[in-house]
Structure formats: C-alpha cells, structure tokens
Amino acid sequence: MKKTLLSIIFLFFIQLASAQCAMCKAVVESGRPEEAEGLNSGILYLMVFPYILVGALFFIIIRNKIAGKKKE
Fold first, then answer.
1. The whole model's pTM is what?
2. Domain boundaries, given as residue ranges, for the chain
3. Are the CB atoms for 36 and 28 separated by under 8 Å?
C-alpha cells in the first residue's frame, strides 16, 4: 500500500523533478547548438566519474575476496 501511494505522489510531482537549473535551461533555450553540445558533454563528463569510482571499488573488493579464498 505504501509503495502504491508513494508512486502516485511521485507521478504528480514529476514535472517539478524534470526541471533543469536556471543556467542550464537558459543555455539550452538560447538555441545555440554549440553551447548545448558543450553542456551535454559536461554532464556526461561529470556523470562518468562516480561510475568509474564505484567500479574500481567493486573490483578491488572482489579481487581481495578471491585472493582471501585462495589463501585458505
């Protein structure tokens, strides 16, 4: 019941969640494709690093667990 109610609440507020920051929205709406492309590249650049860090941490943990099992 809680999940259903929470889902309905999120559906009503989805328009608020899809907004960009004021500066990003102004750049995209200005109509200059070079700036919009640069904004998209910057977003992708910022998005990649958390995944790389989590992947590296996961790799280290798995490698240490495998090495620990081989010692036993």
1. 0.50
2. 2-71
3. yes
